[in-house]
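Workshop exercise sheet. Pairs work together: one partner reads the sequence aloud, the other fills in the structure field after running the prediction. Swap roles for the next sheet.
Pair: D.N. / O.F.
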Amino acid sequence: MKSYVTSYNGLFTRRAVDAPEVERIEIPIIQRDYAQGRDSEAVARIRANFLNVLYDALTTGMPISLDFVYGDVENGTLRPLDGQQRLTTLFLLHWYLAWRADQLDKEQGWKQFAYATRPSARRFCACLVESKPQIEVKLREWFEDQHWFLHTWRHDPTIQAMLLMLEAIHERFADVDCTAAWGRLVDIKEPPISFHLLPIEQMGLSEDLYIKMNSRGKPLTPFENFKARFEQILERSSPDRVEEFAQKVDGVWANLLWPFRGADDIVDDEFLRYFQFLAEVCEWHDGRLPFGDTETLAERVFGPGNATAEAHLDFVIRCFDTWCNIDIAAAFSEIFSQATVSLESADTSKVVLFGIYGSTVNLFAECCQGQMRRSLPRTLLLYAVLLHRLNGTAEFPRRLRVLRNLIEASNSELRAEKMPALISDVRRIIVEGALDGITSFNQAQLADERLKAEMLSKAPALEHHLFNLEDHPLLRGCLAAFELDASLFERRAQAFHELFANSSILPALTGALLAAGDYAQRINHRFLQLGSGSNMSQWREEILAGSSRAHLVNVRDALKRLLDAVAERKGDVRSALKSFTDDWLEISGGVNGLDWRWYFVRYPEMRVGRSGIYACATGALGYNVCMLDKTAMSSYYRDPYLSAIRQQSGVEETAVEGAVAQHWAGGPWFTGYETEARWMRLTASGIEIQCVEEGLLLRTLPTAPSQADAFSRVCTDHGIGPDLLLTIPKVESSGYRLDMQDRVQLGAALLRDLVAAGL
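Structure field:
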């Protein structure tokens, strides 16, 4: 088969005697959509590069050749097997320059171009060559506004690609002398843009032939494109290492990644994900935030414009090499664990990764398989492991544990814009073993790490107990709620493990800890947190961790008293908690008055809110409190005093209701702000009871004579006058007016008598 050098316009003017006659070009139905106009970053780069080449050829006088165009020429129609993309772009370029040079009205062969793939694309090409927009228009908008432009064409991939390419041509050729460029473009004798036409005659256009001839034009995968582009980058920045990279990426590194391959049985995506991670680390190391796709990032990090490009390339190569010929899963299993070790185990060398770290400890596998993307904690930990492997750091388990603790405490600090500072601090911790100069992690936790290190330096035998306590799922490295007293630390740590062994002990624990001290933690000016009596997870952020040592002073004081009591107990933990609570109630229930804490300790019903959050109209716990099940006042909640009164009265739950229907047990339930009055309504009579500072207030007198008489008798029996207030005697104590009598028992007796009276 013989080829002929020609141009797009020259196709329609036969130059050689034996050259085939071409009267029109038709893209056959077997061809794919027009791809050079696709809207993606990868195609955008290809498109920009191609247009730059065409621009230079038309403006600098340096002709170019676009390689071979294979095709079947039959009855004057060229049906390209390979070259569709180039021919379509040349067709669009001819239209654009003819439009700008005012040559559209002339009949020329270049207009005879059509797509057989879709009637819509064929129709668009026919309309295009007849279209003559105004010079100063936005091409896409102008075309879409024409009467012949069908609405469905907005979803046709070939037409949309052509419009995008026309916009790209317009942008690139906006400043060119289009008349001169047009003259050069259609020059048949000395064409600036040519190609070799290889006609395949009398063979027909079969699918088998297309597959054979067009296999060379199969689109490169993103990985293949990246490799070619990256090697070009290295040729300019690190030419002595190009061959090393090329050999390893297709050799030992491919073998390394093979166990992590996906269902497609190739490792392209796995390589790109790990490379992207390493390139981003390098970008952060340079003090910049990564942006753009992998190739764009690679140019910035490894290109000749970066003074540290060679160091970064060395880092990447070493980070791949370090995993070769080892059992990677075993290597990570030696470092991390997903479960805490038993208290009896002497081995606390592994660092526990809690739930946020995914389903495996193999961070390399997670990175390659795309499970780590946008997880800053795992990113920092994988970087730490790499630093250790590349530098052979000493005391790595201890340093990694410190890093884990800092990461766990730094939810607010772990942000993408802080990654340059964060990885700098990771290097300082892992490689240098230093805590000084760490600025990006939570500073309260950093201060605590120094205190723990100081205690271990004086009492190294406590390391096992300290690490076990750090690994507790409620603490996750934060011991700010503990006194770091070396003489008492071991027994208190043991007591803590027993106290928080399971959620069934929480109802007794909340009462005992309140008896040990007022440990309530303020969330804001309205909400306080006491820890849930049913939900273990509520104890972490607001009570035991998530704050500085200074903010947890009340928690720490109460906790140490309770831990000491549990450690000195005789019998089981539950018995110890009951004895501790009972002793405190007996001592504190005398002439000094009954404050909110006494009620909360005395009545477990006042501590059953699942969130552990209490809302107070005054901002301080007292006799006017809302007990939240969830975290916002917009959900149903309870009044702890009214709930305790109902529970202590022994009346059926259906005998009373709150501001909303009683949807589930433990009512009455309310809605609204904490400043609103909460009235517990008796179902039979409509009489309502409210807990107020002075006592218990009633309202809604019964109108039926029999009910009115019964209500009057009950009020008389309980000393309730015309103001309908059951007054609780008060005593002054430390500036507060506290109850002298138990309002819950007084209220329970009142409610019981009202219900018994048929009210």
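Discussion prompt: The longest helix spans residues 41-60. What would you look at next?
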